[in-house]
Specification:
By secondary structure, this protein is an all-alpha fold. The chain has a domain of 44 residues. Helix 1 packs across helix 2 and helix 2 packs antiparallel against helix 3. It is flat. The chain starts with a helix and ends with a helix.
Length: 67
């Protein structure tokens, strides 16, 4: 029984991480389409990662100002 619980827990954790990554990708594609287009054109993920990092920093500062 404990072995089954571990597998279920692992599956839930992997699913949660996958869901979070998918939501971030959708959020990035909707909010910064130019960065996504540049990333696809160049064949590298660097512009998309930079745009996502900038968005996360902006969100963090907005939350800090709100608190």
């Amino acid at each position: 029984m404990t072995n089954e619980r571990r597998w279920v827990g692992l599956a839930v954790a992997v699913g949660g991480v996958t869901l979070a990554v998918a939501l971030c990708a959708i959020w990035l594609a909707l909010s910064r389409p130019v960065a996504v287009a540049e990333s696809l054109q160049q064949g590298s993920v660097t512009p998309a990662v930079r745009a996502l990092a900038a968005m996360l920093v902006d969100a963090w500062w907005a939350l800090a100002r709100w608190l």
